[in-house]
């Protein structure tokens, strides 16, 4: 068996895993409301990676994104931010900020392509629809 023919199954396997991860994330959001998807999939990310700074008295307490211990309240904060001034207007801004772009003071908190990023992206889609 040549090296080329042995590499092909590995490439196919890696591609398959990538596609399955994308389908899992996408299908998780299908049929859910933005609020229920936030509660089941997004809030844990916000609690782990965002709330330390984005809370009253935190380093980012001057921003529009101030979280609390309320899951529904935190969903509402994100919904207002993303959909201002029009539906989905700031979805790309939020996705850029979590990647550390656009002057995000906290730097990169979620890397593009990660499962957390895919979850946030699916949530942005739900908020923007």
Question: Any overview of this molecule?
Answer:
With 129 residues, the protein is mostly helical. It has helices at 3-29, 34-49, 71-82, 91-98, 115-128. Helix 1 packs across helix 5, helix 2 (34-49) packs across helix 3 (71-82) and helix 4 (91-98) runs antiparallel to helix 5. The N and C termini lie far apart (50 Å). The model has no long low-confidence stretch (mean pLDDT 85).
Question: Short summary of the structure?
Answer:
With 129 residues, the protein is mainly alpha-helical. It has five helices and no strands.
Structure characteristics:
129 residues; mainly alpha; 5 helices; globular
Present the secondary structure layout.
Elements: H1 3-29, H2 34-49, H3 71-82, H4 91-98, H5 115-128
Helix pairs in contact: 1-5, 2-3, 2-5, 4-5
The helix/strand class is: mainly alpha
**Order of helical and strand elements:** HHHHH
Tell me the overall shape.
globular
- Give me the Rg, rounded: 17 Å
Termini gap: 50 Å
Q: Identify the quaternary structure here.
A: single chain
Largest sheet: none
Mean pLDDT: 85
Count of DSSP-assigned helices: 5
Low-confidence stretches: none
Beta-strand percent range: under 5%
- The percentage helix is 55-70%
How many strands appear in the DSSP assignment? 0
């Amino acid at each position: 068996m040549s090296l080329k023919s042995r590499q092909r199954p590995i490439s196919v396997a890696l591609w398959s895993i990538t596609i399955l991860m994308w389908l899992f994330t996408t299908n998780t959001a299908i049929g859910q409301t933005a609020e229920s998807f936030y509660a089941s999939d997004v809030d844990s990310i916000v609690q782990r990676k965002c709330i330390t700074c984005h809370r009253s008295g935190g380093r980012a307490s001057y921003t529009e994104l101030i979280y609390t211990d309320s899951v529904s309240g935190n969903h509402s904060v994100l919904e207002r931010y993303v959909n201002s001034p029009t539906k989905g207007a700031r979805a790309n801004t939020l996705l850029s900020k979590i990647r550390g772009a656009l002057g995000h003071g906290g730097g990169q908190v979620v890397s593009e392509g990660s499962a957390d990023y895919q979850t946030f992206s699916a949530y942005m889609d739900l908020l923007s629809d």
